[in-house]
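Sequence, please.
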């Protein structure tokens, strides 16, 4: 079991983050890094200076929830335990990565804020955490370098450096010009199925 080295209170975060990353085709280490950075808990509401709240495990901002209410998504849904808030966060990260401007890390940090001074601080720490999670994932899962078709790699038997690995479940479905500085898209292979 790849999660035995994690404290029990973090296991749900990791399982839900990886599952959401797979579902929404977002780099798993980025979802894990955002989850760690946000550090929310089920039922948690944090008031922001602009009058909005950050809600639940992924501290999903209520400004996004107002536009999602037409689909029946409520703040209580996001505040609850379980994987739903992680799925919403991965969906939102996917939107930022695909549609926003800037490099990959700026786009991912838009989850927190598009305001430059807040984004750059979040981005710097997000990158550090993402490298840590990339190493953690590579040590526990077989991954596939999508830049080299047909070449599955198992990190425990192959040397992997933090700078060369970012776990990603699927390659982007459209070409996106990302300034990635060493980014190698990865695909997790779970139960022998890519």
């Amino acid at each position: 079991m790849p999660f035995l080295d994690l404290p029990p209170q973090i296991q749900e975060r990791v399982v839900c983050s990886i599952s959401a990353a797979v579902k929404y085709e977002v780099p798993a280490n980025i979802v894990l890094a955002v989850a760690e950075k946000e550090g929310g808990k089920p039922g948690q509401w944090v008031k922001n200076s602009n009058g909005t709240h950050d809600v639940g495990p992924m501290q999903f901002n209520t400004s996004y929830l107002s536009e999602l209410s037409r689909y029946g998504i409520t703040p209580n849904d996001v505040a609850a335990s379980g994987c739903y808030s992680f799925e919403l966060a991965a969906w939102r990260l996917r939107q930022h990565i695909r549609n926003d401007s800037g490099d990959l890390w700026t786009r991912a940090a838009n989850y927190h804020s598009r305001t430059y001074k807040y984004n750059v601080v979040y981005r710097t720490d997000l990158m550090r955490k993402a490298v840590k999670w990339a190493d953690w994932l590579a040590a526990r899962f077989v991954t596939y370098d999508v830049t080299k078709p047909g070449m599955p790699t198992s990190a425990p038997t192959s040397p992997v450096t933090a700078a060369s690995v970012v776990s990603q479940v699927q390659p982007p479905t459209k070409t996106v010009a990302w300034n990635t500085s060493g980014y190698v898209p990865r695909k997790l292979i779970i139960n022998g199925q890519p």
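The beta strands are 45-47, 53-55, 60-61, 142-145, 152-154, 166-167, 185-189.
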